[in-house]
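Run log, item B.
One chain of 452 residues. Sequence copied directly from the ordering sheet:
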Amino acid sequence: MSATRRTRPAWFPRVTLRGGAFLIVGGVLLAYSLVGNRRDLVFIACLLIAIPLVAMVYVTVRPARLGVERIFRPPIVPAGGDTIVSLRVRNLSLRPLYGARWRDGASEGITAVAGAQLPSLDSHEGGPAGGADSVILDYTLTPRVRGVYDVGPLVLGRHDPFGLAWSERAIGTGHDLTVTPRITPLPGNGLSDLSGEGTIHELHRQINPNSDELIAREYRPGDSMRRVNWPATARHGEIMVRQEEQRSNPDARIILDTTLSGDPLYSAEHGGERAGRLDQAFELAIELTASVGVHLLDSGFRLEVVELGRSQFAPDAHRERGGLHGDSPSAFLSLGGDRMLLEGLANVVPVDRPDVDDATMQRPRTATHSINETMPTFAVLVDIDEQDAVEIAEYRPQCQPAVAFVLDTMSRAAVTRLQDAGWRCIGLRSPKDIPAAWDEVQRERGGAHDAL
């Protein structure tokens, strides 16, 4: 979810508690002198009123001129992780700056550093930064929720020498901080026990089934014992397993529910409670998609993400129908694809269900694969309606295996329809269920292979 940018704080001089006391006492003396005809107190009353006003003018004129550079280390951080915000502040004025306070602004949903004393800065020296006219300010930022946040600008506060008035002024501009979803480590080695081997590789094996594409590698935890290569084990003195040599990157697909169409009557009946549950479920769906996607990419898979709503990974004016109605899925490769996937998921929000014509509705499809090609498919479903359930059920021939992670906000009727179509439905309620759900996927497929 992208956070709304926070506008620059409005500048306006204000009196401090001490300055306010001056104004109140001066006002009371002035009223008393006029009512009691005490002309000797008029001068004192006006002086008490004038001093805070002069102080407000003092903090207003000749504002400090500063240069600000902001760096995030790292520039992309997972939700709940830490990033170091480094500010290089340089005095660009010909007079020194001292006694000021600073704080960093931030958009809604993230809390930056509170006010702190700014070290004294000498007058501008010219030349490269690093002299007495500059200082580096570091602080730690811990965003809790994914999104793209605007951090900054730097807000500089100044007081007059007597502490009667102060003002704040925004310095520089804000910078975007990308907060990606959390990633839960998943057990196993990708889809080593599954049947998704890449469409090109599968086609080659069908054309030449007698080709020897087997190589031996060392045994890894999670490998099936039926794949042990005993001759290679005897030669190497350690357990070796058979591995088919991949002639192309294997393919996998994730279908992500971004429409939350669901049951409108149930939503209207439960109001805010229902909306709150959907928000939590959607965040869980994003975390699950990130975890499964990164796990597959790290295992060497080429990943496709099919969105039920309009494309948010690669938005375009001609990609408004959703991945099941003709829009091409977003593709990610194992090399650098994990970062692209996570950055894309940082911006994903629920969208309206796309408007499609009847001809498009009759045949769900993707633009890059024919209806007869299959690959491992994982649907992450939050709150689909009956029409979505029908379309995903019809999509089953393209999915082998077909696994649907269903959250507890899903209707029972939609889950039953998917199960009747051959989808393996696995329920989730919280992030702690993600490893067990993925382990259930692997156990299911491992048992199917052992039965062959």
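Observations after the first pass:
- The domain at 251-450 is CATH 3.40.50.410 (Rossmann fold).
- The chain has a mean pLDDT of 81.
Flagged for discussion on Thursday.
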